[in-house]
Each structure stands twice: as C-alpha cells, then as structure tokens.
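Progress note, project year one: complex with pyridoxal-5'-phosphate.
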Amino acid sequence: MHHFQYRGDELYCEDVPVRRIAEEAGTPCYIYSKATLCHHFRVFDSAFKDVPHLTCYSVKANSNIAVLKLFNSLGGGVDIVSGGELFRARKAGIPAEKIVYSGVGKTVDEIDFALNENILMFNIESTDELEQINRRATAKGVKAKIALRVNPDIDPNTHPYISTGMNKNKFGIAIDTALKAYEQARALSNIEILGVDCHIGSQLTEVTPFVDALKRLRTLIGKLRKIGVAIRFLDLGGGLGIVYDQESPPQPREYADAILRELVDIDCTLIFEPGRVIVGNAGILAVKVLYTKRTQTKNFVITDGGMNDLVRPSLYGSYHYIQTVMKSQRNTEIVDVVGPICESGDFLARDRGMPLPTAGEYLAVMSAGAYGFTMSSNYNSRPRAPEVLVNGSEYHLIRRRETWEDLVAPESLPPYLNEACAR
Ligand SMILES: *Cc1c(COP(=O)(O)O)cnc(C)c1O
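Model obtained:
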C-alpha cells in the first residue's frame, strides 16, 4: 500500500501531482509520502501491540531528520550503525533510551559519544569490541548496557551483499561461541548485559529464516538464564522485505504471528529494527528524460538521474519499477533507462518494456524510499538530489539540492598551490 497513484492520466503523491514537485524542486528529486510512512510504521508497530516491544527504525534506510522525527512522534526508537546516525537521531529528538547501536566497526569516538548519550544498548559484534567498550566505560566511570549480536548461521535467501546471518558473514558472534562470550561479558566490571540481538539480512521474502533464527536464540536465552545471566531484551533486527517486482513478502501481521508463536513465555521486551519495510515504498525518485538514443542493439532512455542518485540497480542488480508521470499511450518498447554517469554500470533499468518516453518527460522510479538517498554520492561531481515530504495537498523540502559550491566547500589547497592559483 502506498500513496503514489494515478488520478486520470497523472501520477500523484497523496494530493500533489508529481509533475508539480518535479517542476518546482527540479529533478532528480526524492519524493516521500508522509501518509505512507505513517501507515507503514503503524502497521508494523501495531502487529506487536499485545507484547512489550520497541520498534527501532533502522536509520540507514532513510536518515533524513524529518523522517526520524516523524517516527519519533509515532513512538518509535531507532537502530543506528554509526556516530553520524547517532548525531542525526539526537538532532531529531529521539530519546537516548530508545536507541540501539549495531555495527561491526565502532570507533573509540563513536563508542564515547554513545556512552555520553547513555543509549539503551550497544549490539556488540565481537569479543574485541566487548573489551574495547568495557575499557571506554571504565575510563568514564559508567556501565555500558549491551546485547551480543549473535550470528545464528541461517541462510536468509536474499542477495549475498545483504545477507548477514551466515557464518561466512562478518556480522555478530557465532552462536556456538556466544555462551562463552556472555560469560566473558559478565566478568567485565563496566558491562551490564541487557539482552540478545540478531539481524540475519535484508529484503527477506519468507518468514522461515526469521523463525529458524529465533528458535536458536530462544535456546541460547534458556542456557543463559540457567547460568544466571538475566536477559531482558530480545532484539530480532530488521529485514522484512517489500514488493519491488514479483516478490510476495509476508505482511507484518504474518511476520508477527510467526514470531510471537515461538515466543510465548519468553519474558523479554522485544526490539525490532525495520528499515526497508517502513520507508521503501513510501518514496520515489523523480527523474527527467534528457535524450533518447537508438543504437543497433538498444534503445536508451537517458535521464538526469543516475547511479550516484540511486545505486541499487548498479550495486545489486535490483529491480525498480519505472513509470511515466503522465500516462502514455505510446507502444511498449524494450529500453535501457540510464543516467549521465560515465560508467556502463550506470543504469536504473535494463531491458525494460515500457512506452518509449520522449525528452522532457518525467519518470517515477518507484520504491526508492529505502537505501535510495542514503546510498547516494557525489560521483562525477554531481550535487546530491533534494528530498521532499508530501503531506496531503502540501509538500515541504526536507533537504535542499546541493550546489556546486557545496561540492568544493570542504576542500582546501596546500599553501604552495594556493599561491600558484592566486597568481
Ligand atoms: C540494515 C539493518 C537493519 C534494517 O534492515 P532492513 O532490511 O532495512 O529492515 C536492521 N538492523 C541492522 C543491524 C541493520 O544493519
């Protein structure tokens, strides 16, 4: 369900024509629907309303502070993976006691920042990191609240780059050694164990891997309690998939039912870290067709949006549905929708059947709300696109388009070049 629908021949985001935003804000431009964001958050969160839980939205999917603030207003916390995300979360007013911090490579500065903020817990990914966090907490005279991120060795059947819960992945502590790691944690003076965590991957389209992982964690929690380690939180990560093309991922309700069936009497507050399922279908990337080009083997549609704006097709071979902003009566042809970047890997769609668009026409790259803007870059010295949040019949710019001056602002010349340039 999302609020990007045609009215007559024209694509709308809620009550605003996408064309109007594209004309006023320029393209490429990310457009998010507030109603869709809220709906998805509520559907997910309310699926667990009968049990103690905290929905910690995964910031890296879409980290605009307006988006974070919106979820905060709905009662959500956040899952962060860097100091920068912690900074954003605090800017957006997310209470520290609703912040969990994952990631395999937390630096000393990032750990110190999170200790100063007194976040709910660190999800620790190695015993080395455990020792480091204990050292930093000791130096500050505080206790670090932690869960160990356990790698349950479950195949999530998703793209290899976004599967995280198998032994060959860099994430978490192998479940076979987790008991020992907890004993090590218990012996550390400035560590307070709160829970158990896992996150097995992203864009999962079936519940079975979640349930299999959960069974292993439940067994671990039983063993931990037996040796006197109190476990109050069980963090099950994120990963629920969305429809990009022909997938049929479980609805949050089915996901919740499958999980809660396994967790009767677990006596833990559940934490979830959904990202994509909340924001993915709540955003589009609007682009403009610059040129079309027929070669002997291909029809190219060249747009002003490229892999620096939306890298998922280039990076993972991901599918994004693309439609014209004004409904088109032209015949369907097979086209490559490509960007202006100087790489043959720069495409938004390959061998796609669609009405051949003409120069000046706007296209909507659908389901671009997750891992869209956040993965964008300045490659080819392209200013990053603006972000717009639609609310009913109005919209607001929640991030302006970068300027060419923004591109060079952090750069500086060594003195010897400075002189040469001044001459
Ligand atoms: C990326 C990530 C998530 C969110 O994953 P989605 O597939 O977007 O739900 C949750 N937890 C951790 C630790 C992550 O790295």
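Residues 58, 60-61, 79, 81, 102, 199, 202-203, 237-240, 273-277, 370 surround pyridoxal-5'-phosphate (CB under 6 Å).
The first strand starts at residue 4 and ends at 7.
No further modelling is planned for this target in the current period.
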